[in-house]
Specification:
Blueprint (H helix, E strand, L loop, with lengths): L1 E5 L8 E5 L9 E10 L2 H8 L15 E9 L11 E4 L2 E2 L2 E2 L11 E5 L3 E3 L6 H4 L3 H14 L7 E4 L5 H13 L2 E6 L2 H9 L4 E4 L5 H8 L5 E6 L6 H6 L1 E9 L12 H6 L3 E4 L5 H12 L7 E6 L3 H10 L5 E5 L1
Parallel strand pairs: 10-11, 10-13, 11-12, 13-14, 14-15, 16-17
Antiparallel strand pairs: 1-2, 3-4, 3-8, 3-17, 4-5, 5-9, 6-7
Helix pairs in contact: 3-4, 3-9
């Protein structure tokens, strides 16, 4: 099969499109013929190398996978060849795309228990934008953050895959959404998917603007998966008893913290790591019902994954980047 492989950590020049052995199913596995794979920052981190995580080299990343079952292990029940599926990357063997080979390939081995059935009404490119982004967002906003109707929710980095998912889910709940991004074009697109207020963080202080938009009371929730120098301003934007939801650190994992805001306003900083299989199944169901709609910003053939990851690193996109074998 063809796959995108890196033999060593570093830049996109290490991504090679080449022939690799087909994966072999164990008794409890299926082989999925990949029809589309969504890119995530996890693919960047895996390629660069991550502290305290050993990635077996050579390696195939890619955790957001949609496709159809090509073969089944002899102990698998409930699934058959040709079934349309999306994949929950969190397996008992490790995370698909980080610890075991992922979906930036024509085929991938998946434990059958990690499959979620994909309705015929959802096309594969759309499906590849669901598992990680929408699963993460549903868990963070609903299970961890417990966002309520009428609350004000500030979403940083709102133009990416997780960000656009958070905008839609918060609106579905009934929250008032403040979405921050870095260009006028992205702000227009955020309005189009439901944001009530938009903030260009390259032109104004997002914290001060959110404070003003909230009537100088602060917002109840901030979604921050960037970290770095956005962390303290996020705390400043929060109302008393506000919740800062954290599911990543794309701009830096060791930010400064101003403890004065933490205790004076009795803030909560809540971490959210990933998703459950039920979260992904819920997301698929909501997409099938038309209540959520993944935003696909760019599509690339698998052979051009290096160009797709370059776009991802530069943040020069809106929504989700999908590659197709």
């Amino acid at each position: 099969m063809k796959a995108i492989v890196f033999d060593r950590h570093g830049g996109v020049e290490n991504l090679i499109y080449r022939d690799c052995p087909d994966p072999v199913a164990r008794a409890t596995d299926v082989i999925v013929r990949v029809r589309a794979a969504g890119l995530n920052y996890l693919d960047i981190f895996a390629r660069r190398g991550m502290p305290n995580i050993t990635i077996p080299l050579p390696f195939i990343s890619g955790g957001d996978i949609a496709g159809e079952i090509e073969s089944v292990g002899n102990s698998v029940t409930g699934w058959k060849i040709g079934d349309r599926v999306v994949v929950n990357p969190k397996t008992d063997d490790g995370l698909i795309g980080e610890e075991i080979h992922g979906g930036l390939a024509e085929r991938v081995r998946v434990p059958a228990v990690n499959l979620v059935r994909l309705p015929d009404t959802i096309e594969y490119n759309t499906a590849a934008a669901i598992p990680i982004n929408f699963g993460t967002s549903i868990r963070m906003l609903m299970a961890i953050g417990k966002v309520q109707p009428g609350e004000k929710v500030l979403i940083l980095g709102a133009s990416g895959g997780v960000g656009t998912a958070c905008v839609q889910i918060a609106k579905m709940i009934g929250a008032e959404v403040l979405a921050a991004a870095g260009s006028a074009e992205k702000l227009d697109q955020l309005r189009a998917i439901g944001a009530d207020h938009v903030i260009d963080y390259t032109r104004e202080d997002f914290s001060r603007r959110a404070w003003d938009l909230s009537g100088k009371r602060g917002v109840e929730v901030v979604v921050n998966f960037t970290g770095g120098d956005t962390f303290v301003p996020s705390m400043r934007a929060l109302a008393r008893h506000g919740r800062l939801l954290v599911c990543g650190a794309t701009a830096g994992y060791a930010p400064p913290i101003d403890l004065r805001y933490l205790w004076r306003r009795e803030l909560q900083v809540l971490g959210s790591t990933g998703y459950t299989q039920d979260d992904i199944a819920t997301a698929v169901d909501l997409v099938a019902k038309g209540q959520l709609k993944p935003v696909i910003g760019h599509r690339f053939p698998l052979s051009e994954t290096a160009a797709a990851q370059t776009l991802l690193e530069a943040r020069s996109f809106f929504g989700k980047i999908v590659v197709t074998p």
